[in-house]
Amino acid sequence: MGDALKRHLDAIPLSIADPAFHVCLTNAAGNDELVANFRRLRGLEQINNHFAREFIGWVHEFVFSRLDDLTLAQLRAQGVSHG
After folding, report:
1. How far is it, in rounded angstroms, from Cα 36 to Cα 73?
2. Alpha-carbon gap, residue 32 to 16, rounded angstroms
3. Tens of pLDDT along the chain (83 residues)?
4. Dmax over Cα atoms in the chain, in whole Å?
């Protein structure tokens, strides 16, 4: 496993506690078209623990980790106010 991938995987458990990540993950999971396309692209027939781990990692890598500081601050405020 490359160092970059290991750092990415190590960061996920810390991100799960971040209200901004929770908002990203909740919004992504609530988007039926996104979930259906993710399942199709990954060849995942069922939504199960394997799907959840893959989806969480994907949201972290391709959504959460690419947000700028202002957006993260806004999402954290949104997550705290709804949490």
Report:
1. 29
2. 21
3. 456 555 555 666 667 788 999 899 999 999 999 999 999 999 988 888 888 888 998 999 999 999 999 999 999 998 877 65
4. 38
DSSP line for 15-47 = HHT-HHHHHHHHHHHT-HHHHHHHHHHHT--S-
Strand (E) or helix (H) holding 10: helix 3-16
* C-alpha R_g of the chain: 13
User: Residue 72: which of 23, 18, 20 has the closest Cα?
Assistant: 20
Q: What are the tokens at 16?
A: 């799960």
Element (H, E) at 56: helix 49-62
Residue 59, pLDDT score: 93
For residue 32, the model assigns a pLDDT of 92
